[in-house]
């Protein structure tokens, strides 16, 4: 799930793994130093946002996703019924595969 950074509050320690994405921009993955779970990621391409894995939320009322990105590398068996917009790559630079 992508959030504007001002909407997110981080507590506790993290470690970071950074790499260059296919776009050439750096992406950083922040993870728990104890269990190794990814907590969030950020990129130089969209510095105002961070991505938080939906599994980090314990809220059963979490809204279903409406946008799916990077479907070009998605497993063939994965599908989310609530998704209305599909992108082969990232939504910030790609034309939707389909809408609605």
Biggest β-sheet: strands ordered side by side in the sheet: 2-3-4
Termini separation (Å)?
A: 19 Å
Category from helices, strands and their pairing: mainly beta
How much helicity do the residues have?
A: under 10%
Count of β-strands: 8
| Main β-sheet description | 3 strands, antiparallel
Total domain count = 2
Instruction: Name the average pLDDT.
Output: 83
Task: State the low-pLDDT regions, or none.
Answer: none
Description:
Helix content is 0%, strand content 30%. It is mostly beta strands and 100 residues long. It folds into 2 domains: 1-56, no CATH class; 64-100, no CATH class. The protein is globular and about 35 Å long.
Question: In a few lines, what is going on in this structure?
Answer:
This protein has no helices and 8 strands.
What are the main properties of this structure?
three-stranded antiparallel β-sheet, mainly beta, 100 residues, three-stranded mixed β-sheet
Topology:
Blueprint: E1 2-4, E2 15-20, E3 26-31, E4 38-43, E5 49-51, E6 67-68, E7 85-86, E8 98-99
